Amino acid sequence: MSFTTRIKAIAAASVAAATLFSMAACGTSDSADSGSSDSSSKSSSTQGFDTSSIKKDDELAALLPDSVKSDGVLKVGTDTSYAPAEFLAEDGKTPVGFDVDLTKALAAEFGLKAENVTATFDSIIPSVGSKYDIGISSFTVTKERLEAVDFVTYFKAGSTYVVKKGNPSKIDSSDLCGKKVAVQTGTTQEEEVNKANDDCKAAGKSAIDVQSSKLQTDVTTAVASGKADIFYADTPVAGYAIKQTGDTLEALGEDVGVTPEAIAIKKGDTKTAEAMQKAVQKLMDDGTYKKILDTWGVSSGAVDKAEINPTVES
């Protein structure tokens, strides 16, 4: 595939980025079928893991408050531009990804139908408990976010810098002053780059040109097209973007700050938080969780314990 064709594929946000994400997922160094012989864990990348065999757990369902389960639907806010965690299939409408499969598995445990509602990343947390029952969209746990919502952990991921193959601009991620840095709006990576920008200004150096976009596809396109020098994103997302651009891009340096990712729940809704924690833990304990991650090649981000509001440093 030519460079021009790849850029056009990345930029297809107008059709929900479906063409960008039509190939197999590859968020980490894990192979897409590692660690499991179960046929359902080897589904195609856009089909994902088959959750149809998961049965309702009456004890778990009893824990979930009526405000969530009364309509028979688990409505989840999801930014579907963040492959391989959550993105749109070839039809440009159907949410897929390991977070989406996890959503379906959780809903099945509660005897509910999962409904992933596409939203911009920064709009989800403010709408949890009103527009959405929960939010599942690769949210890393931070002190700031813990002031707004409660969290139940289910994954871990670091952050990765990505540049053009060969790093032609000789970017040094430890000194981004004067550079053009692309990030997704509302992410922890945006926060970190903005802090770095403040440090540049305080030191009398050139400011960072922070290019914040609501869609990760636009962030990727910015670097691949030369609009930005470098982008900063969650490690699984960065690895997947590199593969999807035909190795036009490459990771720069080591992964930064591996932290937990979690389900966002309305602040103070202890019943839903407890129900979600127990449901996630059951999926971990019975092996379903690992099969879902194996399907998408991201099992290196697996954790063995679901926690409510873990202690974080920042």
TrEMBL record:
Signal listed as a keyword: yes
Region (Disordered): 29-52
Alphabetically ordered keywords of this record: Signal
Gene3D superfamilies referenced in this protein's UniProt entry, alphabetically: Periplasmic binding protein-like II
Signal peptide (UniProt feature, chain positions): 1-24
All copies of domain Solute-binding protein family 3/N-terminal, residue ranges: 73-300
Xref: InterPro entries: Solute-binding_3/MltF_N
SMART domains: PBPb
Any Pfam family the entry gives: SBP_bac_3
Entries under PANTHER family matching the protein: ARGININE-BINDING EXTRACELLULAR PROTEIN ARTP, MEMBRANE-BOUND LYTIC MUREIN TRANSGLYCOSYLASE F
Protein name: ABC transporter substrate-binding protein
Organism, as annotated: Bifidobacterium margollesii
